From TrEMBL:
It comes from the Eukaryota. The keyword Electron transport does not apply. This is DELLA protein GAI1. Keywords: Transcription, Transcription regulation. Residues 347-427 are annotated as: SAW. A motif (VHIID) lies at residues 171-175. Belongs to the GRAS family. It holds the Pfam family GRAS. It comes from Dendrobium catenatum. InterPro entries: TF_GRAS (IPR005202).
Amino acid sequence: MKGEVADDLLNLSLSIGQTKKRKRTDQNLAIAAVLHARNRMLHQTTPILLDHNIDGLHLIRLLLLSASAADLHDFSTAVESLLHLYPQLSLSGDPIQRVAAYFSDAILANLIAPSSPLYSSLSPSPTPHEEFSAFTSLYLASPYLQFAHFTANQAIIDAFEAEEHWNGGSLHVIDFDVSYGFQWPSLIQSLADKAKKDKPFKLRITGFGRSEAELKETEARLSGFSKGCRNLYFEFEGKNMEINSFKDLNLWENSTVVVNSVFNLHMLKSSTLQLIQSLNPSLLILVEKEGRRTETTSKSFLSRFMESLQYFAAMFDSLDDCLPAGSKERLRIEKNYLGREIRNAVDMKQEEDEKEVLIKYGTLATWKEAMERSGFEGVMMSSRSVSQAKLLLKIKSHCSTMEEHGGGAGFRISERDDGRAISLGWHDSGGSTRSKTMQRAKGNLHGFDVQAI
């Protein structure tokens, strides 16, 4: 009797093992079919023409169906939707086709285990050189990044000048993500132009970066630029954000201190804000994309997916006005910069400690409220910041038509929050980038907002 039970258990165990193996095999075959459809899409030579009133909406529905199925671990439905999607997509087609292609890739990446040999069939991550090239192309082609940097720099200059009677002409900027350092040449030049020969200004930038190599390149780039600027003493200190904490920042005595955070709202945990307050900065500058959520945190993958889709659809659409059809620069931007951001935005495998995150997504009002709970409050923007933003859009007016007070075609800028905020938007897409500057004076915390898309 015992032998019969043992045989039954063995047969049951083998049956379960065979079922699991067959399931994995079936899934691999399904993924291989999707990858084949994707490969045909990548090698299409003639873009598919879409009727935006029908096919565009159809693509969105298929994307949401696939994303929802992936969120519910409904593998079959997710794969079936992707099989219907890829034949209708093109990396050189209309904006909706292009953005849907990258979101389809992001969904597909969530369906494949990173250890699977099939995972390597997806597009490899761009090399550092490809990332830099894509970032540079976007910076030059669109007002998106320059708007964020220039308006933030004007806020820094305003704070520096307000404290010039006691800061001795010394400014220390702490940048949470210095990246390639593109934000800082304009600030270096502005300070050099304002300084006098007998009283040079001093600028130190402490920049946190992803790697030692990138930090060294950024230091060389900024130091080389500063050598051509008279009446300015410049220092750069790079810190690897994976290794260093935000301590031991070696602040200059009596200098105006500014903390700069561009597209790094997720870093502002309660503990980080406490550290920032201990530095007693004159400004905390935040530049961020505005979302639609009202909660301080959200674990809904589908809501994050829908919000990201709306935002990046506006980005892809705006690039059509900034760059000509068939532009290699546009493909470079979308493949090696925006595509990577899309995959990160909808990564279901990414583990995050959301308990400490102050706010990750939301509207301007949402993170304004969150910052106020931490002791910060807004102050009025200077008229120079608004003028700087409008001037930049006039310079970039070759990209598209623009209106200054919202609505209409192309890019638009608008002041908000009773003069404490300014935003750059595209059409009425709702996707925006927010920046918030927090100022501390006389022991009280104050601040102002700058916004960009």
